[in-house]
Every structure is written in C-alpha cells, then in structure tokens.
Amino acid sequence: MRTTTSARVLGDVLVRLWGLSSHDRIARQLQRAGGVRLLAPSDPRPTQGSIVLLRGDYVYDDRVVAALVRTPGVLLTASGGGALVAAHVPSNLAARAEDVVGGTAAPGGLPGVRHATPESLVPAYQKELRKLGPAVVRPITPETRRELEDQLFAGAYKGVTDLVTKWVWPRPARWVTRLCVAAGIRPNHVTAVGSLLALVAGALFAVGEYGAGLVIGWLMTFLDTLDGKLARVTVRSSRFGHLLDHGTDILHPPLWYLAWGLGLAGMEPGGRGPALGVTLGVIVAGYVVGRLVEGAFQIWLGGFSIFCWRRIDSYSRLVTARRNPNLLLLTAGAAVGRPDLGLVAVAVWTALSSAVLLVRLGLAVHARVTSGPLRSWLADADNRARASLSVRLFGTSVAER
After folding, report:
1. What's the rounded Cα separation, in Å, for the pair 123 and 289?
2. Which end of the chain is more exposed for a tag (fewer CB within 10 A), N or C?
3. How many C-beta neighbours within 10 Å does residue 1 have?
4. What are the φ/ψ torsions at residue 256 (nearest 5 degrees)?
5. How many Å apart are CA 86 and CA 100, to the nearest integer?
6. What does pTM read for this prediction?
7. Strand locations in 184-286 (E)
8. Among 85, 73, 96, which residue's Cα sits nearest to residue 22?
9. Distance CA 357, CA 339 (A)
10. Cβ 346 vs Cβ 282: under 8 Å
11. Residue closest to 232 by CA, chosen among 168, 305, 293, 177
C-alpha cells in the first residue's frame, strides 16, 4: 500500500515575496515536489503515513522543500543554525513535532528523527541551473524583504550560459520581473509574447528590414530570459508554457537565419544564389549537429549538459554558436551595412562551434568507456573557492554578485 504524505504550514507572515504570501509560496513548492497533500489549518492531523511541517515565517529554497518531502525522519534547522523550522516525521509524531517546530517544546521525544541543515540536505550543485549555490532557509521580515527577493531572483538564474544572458540581461530582467509581478503578468503571457515576437522578427528579416528585425529579435531574447525567471520567483509554471518555451527556443534560430538569407536574396535577386545556399546550409546543418551532440551527451553519457562537463566547456558556452552570440554577429554585420557578411560570420562560427562539440563528444565517449560515469566539474567544485576564476564565473550568476 502506498504511503501517504501530508503537509502543514505552521503560521504565516504578512510580508510578500515577489507577490506571494509565504503560505502560497510553500503550497506551490509542495505541489511542484509532488506526492503531498497539503492540509488546511482546520484539518485534523493524519493518522497514517507521514507529515511534513514547515514554519510559515521562513522562505525555503525549492530544493529544500523537495528534499524534505523525499526524506522522512528529519528535523531541519534554518541556515546558519539556530531555529528549528521544518520536519518530516511519521504521523504518530505529528503533535510533538508541531510543538518542536513551533518553538513551544524542546527537540526531544522524536525517536528516529535526525537533525539536518539545508546544506546537508541538498547538494550545492544545481544541475538544472548549471551552477553552484548552497540551499538557503531564512526568516522573512519586513526589513529583509528586498534582500530575500533579490536572493530568490539570483537563485533563478543560470550559471553556465551565453555572455549576453550572463552579463547583459540580469539587472534589467530583475527590474522588469518586478513590474510583471506588480501587474499580474504570468510567465505564460511573457512566453506567448516572446513567441509572437520571434515570428515578427523573422518576417522582418525575410523582407530585408534588418534594423527593425534586430530590435524585435533582441527584445524577444530578453523575454526568453524573463519568462523563466518570473516562473521561478513566483513558483508558477505549466506544461503548456514549458513546451511553448522550449519549442520556440529550438525552432526559431534556424528559421531566423533562413529568413535573413531570404532578405539578402530579395535585396539582390539572382546574385547570391549558390553562395547563399551554401552559407545557409552550413548554418542549419551546424545548428542541427550541435543540438544533436548536446542531446546525445545529456541522454546517453552524462545526464547533464555537455557545457558543464569540464571547465573549458563552460567557457565555450559563453560564445558557442547559439542564438545570442550569433545575433551579435548579425547585428555587427547590419551595423556596418554588410548583413551578408554577418550571415557568413554566423556560418563560419557555427561550423567551428559544431566541430568543437563533436570533438568534445568523442572525448566524452572515450572517457565514459575507459574511466566510467562522467561527472560535472561543478559537482566536484567547492563554492567557497572564490579564488578560482571558473567558480566565480560559473558557480554563481551575475545576479548573485
């Protein structure tokens, strides 16, 4: 028979973080963790299974809530030690655990329950966000509201990514995220607008309106960064939004390059045929090869992004021929009045990047066969080793510094 896990939030605070009350944030985190039934304050304590208890006057890293749900027999302290803030105990210990977590009883009388900290419960390496970051549980107060919001935003940002996303977008994205929360704009709204802008930019490229197309295209790339951050800080996501976001991410770059080529052909009909066809063929083929290499590595070799395997791979991700670096090349070409050379530069850079990825895949296969399972360098890095340039660059995001 399947064991039932219930959950209860003990208390709440008036302070909202990114528009959410603490109770609502925890409820969404529990829903995302899955397999938990959230009890209302008036619901009786369960008599079977186990129960997760969380103080409502603390903010929890998503990873902590998910790990707590998966780990029965735990009494959790806040970051830095001190207050007991959460527990996962058998239902027969629920009453005693509520008193302990609520601070009205000493942490005794809970047999088989061990103490844990956020850092001991959750590893610092975040595979999905490609960075290091210790899990944090902190008290919510009016004085620390802005600091906690900044911390949540920083926690939503990837560590290993391209140079534009890493160094240009974080601060404006934080500001616009605040506007979206205040206006009630949801992540799916942002994703939908971004997808529409991708089509508009492509249409403008196709008719040779490169200046306007680039403005719309860069705005689209900003929204592509924004929707994920908004989803994470508000703990709001949907399967539809996820599919739309990733589908747009995969499909629109090669379509933009083809549209750019159509614009060039329209500017000089018949004068660019064979050379333009080769250029576009190299770009599309290189794009497909790059995506296939990344997928093969993640599915069959590492279980994580190829750009997180070795430090050199993380450095290469800054400039590898993905959309944002390529858009910089197209922008440079259009700025000097040579959009054709911008496209040629994208073709050359795509060919080089794909060749590098193929070499890295071959080395990964060799390492997997000869040395066993692959590990990301981030999984073995120490987040405290700030003297290391690679840890400073990729262990955190700019939003965290």
Report:
1. 33
2. N
3. 5
4. -65, -45
5. 9
6. 0.93
7. none
8. 85
9. 27
10. no
11. 177
Instruction: Characterize 246-262 residue by residue with b for buried, 16 or more Cβ atoms within 10 angstroms of its Cβ, and e for exposed.
Output: eebeeebbbbbbbbbbb
Residue 392 DSSP symbol = I
Q: What is the DSSP string of 97-113?
A: HHHHHHTSS-S-S-TT-
Burial class (CB in 10 A: 0-12, 13-18, 19+), 245: buried
CATH of range 5-121; options 2.60.40, 3.30.760, 3.90.550, 3.30.310: 3.90.550
Name the residue with tokens 């007991």: 84
CATH number of the domain at 157-400, please? 1.20.120.1760
What residue ranges do the domains of the chain occupy? 5-121, 157-400
What's the rounded Cα separation, in Å, for the pair 367 and 363? 6
| Token output for 66 | 């998910």
Cβ proximity of 25 and 31 under 8 Å: no
The residues pairing with 114 across neighbouring beta strands, listed in sequence order, are 74
pLDDT in tens, the chain (401 residues): 456 899 999 999 999 999 999 999 999 999 999 999 999 988 999 999 999 999 999 999 999 999 999 999 999 999 987 799 999 999 999 999 999 999 888 888 899 999 999 999 999 999 999 999 889 999 999 999 999 999 999 999 999 999 999 999 999 999 999 999 999 999 999 999 999 999 999 999 999 999 999 999 999 999 999 999 999 999 998 999 999 999 999 999 999 999 999 999 887 655 465 689 999 999 999 999 999 999 999 999 999 999 999 999 999 999 999 999 999 999 999 999 999 999 999 999 999 999 999 999 999 999 999 999 999 999 988 655 656 888 888 876 555 55
Crossing angle between the packed helical segments 339-371 and 273-296, to the nearest 10 degrees:
30
42's CB contacts (< 8 A; 6+ apart) are none
Segment (H or E) for 65: helix 62-70
Identify the CA nearest to 48 among candidates 109, 106, 105, 6. 6
CB 135 within 8 A of CB 119: yes
Say if residues 8 and 39 touch (Cβ distance below 8 Å). yes
Distance between CA atoms of residues 139 and 151, nearest Å: 13
Separation CA 136–CA 121 (nearest Å): 11
How many H-runs (helices) and E-runs (strands) does the chain carry?
A: 16, 10
**AA letter at 392:** R
